Amino acid sequence: MLKPHRVEIDIKNIEYVCIKITPTHGRQLQVCCVYHPPSAPASWKDACYTLCNVLVSDPQPCILLGDFNVDLLTDKSLADDMAVTFGFTQHISAPTRITSTTASLIDHVYTSGLDYITAAVTELHIADHCAVSCSLKPHRSEERRVGKECLRL
Predict the structure, then answer these.
(1) Among residues 57, 34, 56, 38, which one has the least CA distance to residue 47?
(2) Tens digits of per-residue pLDDT, 48-90?
(3) What's the whole-model pTM score?
(4) Angle at the Cα of 67 (from 62 to 71), degrees rounded to 5?
């Protein structure tokens, strides 16, 4: 059984929702979904970094995902900066927004403190964004208690 609860973080100039998931067995997990509107002010990046600081200051593993509207196919500086500054790993490598003339990777999945994760991009054909998902397997020390089931986000 999963017991999610919303985490209130007071940060301006960014759209986000954060939750903590407390499974019956295993470690607590932070999940935060963000949206970076194309028209967002330049202060959005500072607000995002403030959010990242809050997330990594908690010892629990975390997932930060969403529509960042930064194309990692043409500019990897955000993913590189997230790795160096906060220790995040970015898991998506395929285009996530595909049109008849362009393909871009603007939907990202960053993790910290998670070793057993797989991420996927699935074309839906009903929107101009693909579905981005990730699966978590239990930490090795937890496999005996919970089996080999995965948590899908």
Answers:
(1) 34
(2) 999 999 999 999 999 999 999 999 999 999 999 999 999 999 9
(3) 0.86
(4) 110
